[in-house]
Amino acid sequence: MHGTTWRDIAGLAIDLAHQQKQKAEFMSDWDKLVEAEAAKIKPDPETERRRQLIDSDIGIERSWDLINSRAARSEAPETTYQASFYELSRHGIAQLSKANCQRRLGDLSDQQIKRLITALQQRRGQYSNITDELLNALATIYDARIRHEQ
Fold first, then answer.
1. Spatial CA neighbour of 10 closest among 20, 18, 2
2. Structure confidence at residue 31 (pLDDT)
3. Exposed (0-12), middle (13-18) or buried (19+): which is 138, by Cβ within 10 Å?
4. What is the pLDDT at residue 69?
5. Residues 8-34, mean pLDDT to the nearest whole number
6. Cα(103)–Cα(100) distance, rounded to whole angstroms?
7. Residue predicted with more confidence, 40 or 85
8. Which of 56, 114, 117, 135 reaches 20 to 30 Å from 36, CA-CA?
9. Helices then strands (H, E): number in the chain?
């Protein structure tokens, strides 16, 4: 700081204060933008249903049964279905051992599993990883889910 005058230091302090004010204004605007965007996002129907169960006056046992009931489950978001199709068509049966794939398949409704099997069958010629073994494994998963519900 040798040779620095008090005017130089004051100018730097003013610049710093101005930068901090601009940053605070930017962050405030950013927070408002994030809040506005978050307000546009509607929770999926399943999340809303679960919130209602928590807020309602029914017993914990009944809530648990309703939450885990396959019949009460709605379809998974289309992106979950598409991700399942993508990973199984590109990577084949090996994906069934992966936690993400298992979670996605668990989220799909019975109808979506049937649709997935059909879509994979229709595109067998395009993707070499769509094998009989994969399709049979998915059919077994589907059958087990249907039997479990009965």
1. 18
2. 80
3. buried
4. 61
5. 82
6. 5
7. 85
8. 56
9. 7, 0
The candidate with the shortest Cα–Cα distance to 96, out of 75, 74, 120, is 120
Query: Can you tell me the distance from the alpha carbon of 5 to that of 35, in angstroms, rounded to the nearest whole number?
Result: 45
Distance CA 1, CA 9 (A): 9
pTM value?
0.53
64-68, 114-118, 122-126, range with the lowest pLDDT: 64-68
71-99 residues labelled b (16+ CB within 10 A) or e (exposed): eebebbeeebbebbbebbbeebbebbeee
What's at 30, amino acid-wise?
W
Give the three-state DSSP class for 82. helix
Residue type, 17: A
What is the token pair recorded at 34?
Answer: 């994030």
Assign 75 to helix, strand or coil: coil
